[in-house]
Amino acid sequence: MLMIRLKGIGKKHQRSFRLVIQEKRSKLLGKFIEDLGWYNPHTNKSEISKDRVAHWIKVGAQPSMTVAQVLKKAKIPVPAGIKTSKTYAPKKVVEVSAK
Fold it and tell me: Which residues form a coiled coil (predicted)?
């Protein structure tokens, strides 16, 4: 299965990221199929090839949760069914009676 992932580049604590297409089980710093653009979280800037992202999603590639958030910020449509944030179950409240 193909994934759209963020591949870290740059120095430690100064990371910027490349959006790449990779096999889901391959190593993150391993080979990738295509480079789709870049994202810099420090400046919140990105340059993403919208037509290539749309092509790969149409072919069946799944964006990771973080990539889905970046695509949403860049106003690129994310397919339905892809989570853009973790949803946590509400904490159970236990009432204790005082005797």
Answer: none
Would you say residue 65 lies in a domain?
Answer: yes
What domain range includes position 18? 2-73
Helix (H) or strand (E) holding 71: helix 65-73
Here the tokens at position 33 are: 């199929």
pTM: 0.77
pLDDT at 20: 95
User: Cα Rg for the chain, rounded, in angstroms?
Assistant: 18
Which ranges of the chain have pLDDT less than 70?
87-89, 99
| 96 found inside a domain | no
Torsion over CA: 61, 64, 68, 71 (sign): negative
What pLDDT is attached to residue 29? 84
